[in-house]
Write a structure and sequence with these properties.
This protein has 729 residues and is of the alpha+beta class. It folds into 5 domains: 140 residues, Sandwich (Immunoglobulin-like), CATH 2.60.40; 77 residues, Immunoglobulin-like; 97 residues, Immunoglobulins (Immunoglobulin-like, Sandwich); 92 residues, Sandwich (Immunoglobulin-like), CATH 2.60.40.10; 134 residues, no CATH class. 20% of the residues lie in helices and 32% in strands. Strands 3, 4, 6, 7 and 8 form a 5-stranded antiparallel sheet that branches. Strands 19, 20, 22, 23 and 24 form a 5-stranded antiparallel sheet that branches. Strands 27, 28, 29, 31 and 32 form a 5-stranded antiparallel sheet that branches. The termini are far apart.
Length: 729
């Protein structure tokens, strides 16, 4: 009889209660409720997505949560209802006036092992419409849900994501992850702590986590919040060269350090930078100071000691590799002589200084190490108490003939700081035992060589080879290599000199030079011998000689050319003589005085204008010159027959005085004219010839004139008549 109501109630719960009318059930006074008829809505406008789970930690009760509807306000209230199906009494339990979207049902109001139906209702104030969630049925003990994982810490390095959180061995975890910007999650079953591998180093990822009990039936926990893992910082920051500025107070310097992200690093993924600075070498009060900053630079006030600086960038995923630089010691000349150092045996050095009574000074720090080249390699550091003003440095590292540098600093602040805590007060170099230089100067050269002088140049001996404080150089020079001995006198110069002028040398002589350095321990090894030869003449003398030789060569060449031209002229006169122009000869000028040539010029002018030879071009073309004109025997016989009235005596006397007839041609020389002219002159003045002689002489003169005319005509191209007959024929 009792099962019928129970079956009816189960059937009603499965069929739903959309239009269910509220019933009034008889219960105890505390649990009597009246349900009025209302219309239910399961849309998203009302409360929805109801979930209930059992949590032991929360009073061993049942926690229910839901999503509010759209008209949700701060004044909206909810009603949570529970129907216990197998309970004969208190079948319905109602919790009203719930202002939030979650509620915890206490354990004493539940049957942990029976089915329980739960739903949430609310009434919309304006329309008075009832809205409710879908009801859920569960057994509380099987609805246990673990707490959501929290406090998850992660680190991503080399493509691996390492996770750590507060775990429990009873729980099993699931991790969802995806590349940032994508929508698909990848799930991985996770042990209490684990690593996700195979991720891209330069990509950002998102992940979330939930858990479930592994030893019993339970619900999954809620998802944790979504964590964003930024890309890895795979490259170290790039540090620029530190900028050093000396401060007004001696012994302190301002160091400015700046850096930049690597090219592969996006500045938006960097959350900050970490800088660590430490003093080197370490001592019994060694301190490393760490500073975090968002800037890409930092300023330190340091002493002149050596320091080590590290810089790395970091974000939530991890940190980049650290970039490390060494700030070397700074050597300031004006700090010398403020500290004294003397050898104290072969393996110790005694240092002393003026004790400073300044209250700010907490103590002293001494650094020392060998000097290689001009750089100090700090090997040891020692902290000295404030009240001391001298100290003996004992170390197995002190070696004879090795240069060491000692720096003294005062500590002005607590030991936990490095920045702005020290002041350098002294620096000095010292040898425990000095030696002689191991080598001589290199690159010995001789320049500016003259008759009696030369300049010697060389390089300094390196500090590592001096084995002591170099005092100067010695210069040895010899006439030749055969006379080189160690007893010869030398010339000494100070250690800062690298050249010297040798004077008083002999001209055109071979010399050899050697140079050595010396310390307080004595002279070192000499350099290789360098030979040179002095000049026979200085540069000025050579110029004068060169100018004289050049002038002599020029004069010699000029004389040779003039002589050659003279010889060429004589050879030409011998083989190719020049024929003088009779018209310009002295004989013609003499003839002109006897009034023959003026008549001849008149006749030539008349001939040029009136001669029938110039009438036609054919006559000009037929012009020819008689090469030779002579008197034939026939002419002389005719001449004798016409002069038959002259006696033999007159004929004999006339013949003896008559000039010799010379053959006249076109090329009559001046000598012919000289022979003819006196004869003509004497015949015109001394002897009065008879008619026949006069005619003969006129004939001869005419022939002479005609010969001259032929020469003139030959020049001008005019044909003249032959003079082959005696005048009057």
């Amino acid at each position: 009889m009792k099962r019928a109501p129970l079956l009816l109630h189960l059937l009603a719960s499965f069929l739903g209660t959309n239009s269910e009318n509220c019933e009034k059930e008889q219960m105890t006074a505390s649990t009597v409720h009246c349900y009025k008829a209302c219309v239910y809505s399961w849309t998203s406008d009302g409360p929805h997505n109801l979930q209930c789970y059992y949590i032991k930690e929360i009073e061993r009760g049942l926690n229910c949560a839901w999503n509010p509807g759209k008209p949700y306000t701060n004044t909206t209230t909810y009603t949570l209802k529970i129907r216990r199906r197998l309970s004969p009494i208190h079948k319905f339990i109602t919790f009203t006036n719930i202002t939030g979207t979650s509620y915890t049902i206490q354990r004493k109001l539940l049957y942990i092992s029976e089915n329980t139906t739960i739903w949430v209702e609310t009434v919309e104030q304006r329309s008075k419409m009832c809205q409710r969630t879908k009801s859920i049925t569960l057994i509380p003990k099987d609805s246990e849900k673990p707490a959501t994982p929290s406090d998850i810490k992660y680190r991503k390095t080399a493509g691996q994501l390492n996770l750590t959180w507060s775990t429990s061995e009873k729980l099993q975890y699931v991790l969802d992850y995806r590349k940032a910007g994508t929508s698909n999650w990848l799930s991985v079953d996770f042990p209490p702590s684990g690593t996700v591998q195979g991720l891209e180093r330069l990509a950002a990822y998102e992940f979330r986590m939930r858990c479930i009990f592994s030893n019993k039936i339970s619900l999954w926990s809620s998802w944790s919040k979504i964590y964003l893992v930024p890309p890895e910082l795979v490259d170290m920051p790039q540090i620029y060269t530190p900028v050093t500025e000396l401060m007004q107070k001696p012994g302190k310097r301002l160091i400015t350090i700046q850096w930049e992200n690597a090219a592969t690093v996006n500045s938006t993924t960097v959350q900050g930078y970490n800088i660590t600075i430490e003093r080197i070498p370490p001592n019994q009060y060694h301190v490393i100071q760490s500073i975090e900053t968002l800037d890409k630079g930092c300023v330190f006030i340091l002493s002149q000691a050596s320091f080590k600086l590290r810089v790395f960038a970091y974000n939530s995923a991890g940190s980049s590799p650290a970039n490390e630089i060494i700030i070397p010691p700074f050597y300031q000349i004006r700090l010398n002589n403020k500290i004294n150092a003397t050898p104290y045996g072969n393996d110790s050095i005694l240092i002393s200084w003026d004790s400073d009574m300044n209250r700010r000074i907490k103590g002293y720090i001494v650094d020392w190490g060998p000097v290689i080249g001009n750089e100090m390699h700090v090997e040891r550091s020692k902290y000295i108490k404030k009240m001391l003003h001298s100290y003996i440095l004992k170390a197995d590292s002190f070696e004879p003939k090795q240069r060491y540098r000692i720096m003294l600093h005062s500590k002005t602040r607590k030991k936990i700081y490095v920045n702005n805590t020290e002041i350098t007060i002294g620096m000095i170099d010292v040898y425990t035992l000095e030696g002689t230089p191991r080598i001589g100067p290199n690159n010995v050269v001789v320049t500016n060589i003259s008759k009696t002088s030369a300049i010697i140049r060389w390089d300094r001996i390196p500090e590592d080879e001096c084995q002591g404080f170099l005092q100067g150089y010695k210069i040895f020079y010899y006439v030749n290599k055969a006379t080189i001995t160690k007893t010869n006198a030398s010339i000494s110069v100070n250690s800062s000199t690298t050249f010297y002028m040798l004077s008083g040398l002999t001209r055109k002589t071979i010399y050899a030079v050697k140079i050595s350095g010396f310390t307080n321990a004595g002279e070192g090894i000499r350099s290789e011998a360098v030979s040179f030869v002095t000049k026979e003449y200085d540069d000025g003398e050579m110029k004068i000689i060169a100018v004289g030789v050049s002038i002599a060569i020029i004069v010699f060449v000029f004389l040779v050319m003039w002589r050659c031209l003279f010889l060429l002229r004589r050879i030409k006169g011998m083989f190719w003589p020049s024929i003088p122009n009779p018209g310009n000869s002295h004989a013609i000028r003499i003839i002109g005085r006897n009034s023959l040539l003026p008549d001849m010029d008149n006749e030539l002018s008349t001939l040029n204008t009136n001669s029938p030879l110039m009438e036609t071009e054919e006559d000009l073309e037929s012009l020819h010159i008689i090469e030779e004109v002579t008197s034939t025997p026939t002419d002389f016989e005719l001449q004798d027959n016409e002069q038959n009235s002259i006696t033999d005596q007159e004929s004999n006397s006339n013949l003896t005085d008559q000039p010799v007839l010379i053959q006249v041609t076109d090329y009559t020389t001046m000598e012919n004219f000289r022979q003819i002219m006196p004869t003509i002159a004497s015949s015109n003045t001394a002897i009065r010839p008879n008619r026949c002689e006069t005619e003969y002489n006129n004939q001869q003169n005419g022939c002479l004139i005609q010969s001259y005319m032929k020469q003139q005509v030959h020049r001008t191209g005019i044909q003249t008549p032959e003079c082959t007959r005696i005048a009057g024929d």
